[in-house]
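Researcher: Batch entry, complex prediction.
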Amino acid sequence: MYEKAKDAVDACMRKGMSRRELGRRLGALGLTAASANVLWGTASTRALAADFDWMKHKGKTVTLLLNKHPYTDAMIADIQAFKDLTGMEVKYDVFPEDVYFDKVTAALSSRSSQYDAFMTGAYQTWQYGPAGWLVDTNEFLQDESMTAPGFNWDDVLPNLRQSTAWSGVPGEALGGEGAKQWALPWGFELNSIAYNKKMLDGAGGEPPKDMDGLMELAAKMQKDVQGVYGIGVRGSRSWATIHPGFLSAYTNFDQRDFTMEDGKLKAAMATPESKAFHQQWVKMIQDSGPKNWSTYTWYQVGTDLGAGASAMIYDADILGYFMNGGDNKEAGNLAYTAFAPNPKAKGPTPNVWIWSLAMNSFGEQQDAAWYFMQWACGAEHALFGATKMDFVNPVRQSVWDDETFQKKISDNYPGYLDQYKASAPGSKIYFTPQPLFFNLTTEWAASLQKMVAKEVPVDEGLDQLAASVDNQLKQAGLG
Amino acid sequence: MHPAIRVVLLTLIGLFFLFPIVWVFLMSFQTNETILRIPPSLVFEPTLQNYTALISGRLETGAGVLELAFMQNLWNSFVLSFCSVALSLLLGVPAAYAFARFKFFGSEDIAFTLLSFRFAPALLVLLPLNLYFQDIGLNDTYIGLIWVYQLITLPLILWIVRGYFEDISPDIENAYRVDGHSWFSTFMKISIPLALPGIAAAALLSFIFAWNNFVFALILASADKQPVTVGALAFVTASGIQYGQIAAAVVLSILPTLALALYAQRYLVEGLSLGAVKG
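Model: Structure tokens for the complex:
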């Protein structure tokens, strides 16, 4: 029976059988899900090992620095497959997200060789890459002797590949000519609307179609449903307030953070269109946002949706995904919709956050680290994580096309696939890459706080912000 | 004031100050769902699952199994704080005595330099230290961390105990020495016993400061050597916040310092007040 099961899994691996068909066949052979997982893992290992010398670094140990995250959990759950494939050992340090980037920055800035590879966001590579702390992975990607033929780099969504590559020249487009691939995309989130379907249905509300509709719906839900506020968005004094729903909507109105004039950056937040958008955003928070909006981060926005304290959020799609499961009170009641705030826009323009894997340039075994990175960012592991764990959103098209993954998502997360399909074409990083990203974007958030608190009128606040940003750019030689 | 009014006022003040701790204590016996009820309620069915999860290291949630290293974090905090304070006492008490009793060239400068360790922003010190520690192999070791923790504990012990030694009349020590005892014997048998309340108070305070430290181990050590202050953050994940476990972790991490503080309370008050004013 074992041979029959093994043949079935191998056939699936050769793409001769769908995973659903595989599940049926293994079930007919009396195999439990756990046994099927083991078979799947060993078959994956055999398939991967067929055309590449994965054992080249056998006996070596790579050390990773990781953030406590569902992606990390998925990777650890599958790590035995990598060990079997390569004969390598993997050690990892997992730190809470709140302190994770402090740890990364400290390790890199002190030129530590302790970690060979680590998790990072794309924005952080704008600091780490030009500082010489990261290896440009192009040198591995373009080396056929170092990269397995099945790695299929083109399978990674093109916008994400571009968003993690930058030349290091302030203001130059991500993924442009001469861009260095500072990190490999691993998992990502785009920004759309997640809403409490039960609540909306009860109040006779429909998912919003544009910014006016969003503001109206948020106000209606706040008025009609006792003890609930209309919309959750982030508001803390941090760059992280700007990058999710806010920048996605801002971009949808054709607005940018900076313009380039004669090779110099100039703040672009004080245009009439930008002011009009800011007026709407500020009013939405004042009318229908959380009471303590200025303290709201990812955690508060998500927790409120999961606990039924908010009717909807305009934030990362995976935040809505996580809140629809686990111990959350509203688990099973959430739904998702793509969102284009500007009625004249062709489609949604979600800004994205990309958890990526990067290589420490001070690491002493970069070849071995690359073997780990290409496995972790490979299609097999991505499929394992997406179907067996909560490794969403996958960065590979082949995983989105996988029937098992599609079924898992469509069965449990209503509208998620549709919102993804509608959002994906316009999803990428819309910030202009430049080294003052964290400071200037945090100042933008601080400015937004003042506007919401009515400490300064929106128009005046944006003029002040633009003047301050221009001044800082000049001082840094960028403006 | 009427005794009844006094009791009411004291109760109100006590409630005001203790409310956050009481609320956290109550949260530690609730599930996430009951904690996040709208509106919050004091009535709930208590559960020990948060404590069980922390102690067993495994938390079963609807989203899967979460591996917890909290007990290891607690142990790390204890080892680091205890050893750091012990080392600081060994070095700091004789040094405090020397600064209090003897006037030698540069004594005030040295004492002030030691105090100035408390002024420097931690990260400014830690980044270069990280480089040196890698070169000499102290990175990611308990010994290295205990050494760095001296930046917290040593100045505190030295300056508090110094004040206390200065408060003890040298005549008592001189009388003992006239009987033919050595300087060391005088120090051990007269000075230290007289200064014991001050030493206990300084040790307790530095233990609390060391226990609450966050950034030293974060920068200089790997995940298996992190204290509770870092470990407690592991319950805040992208897929949700485990409020119940955070509350239970807070309660467990308060217990050692609370027990120490209650035990040494009288020393703390007496030691601090006696060392503060010179006669």
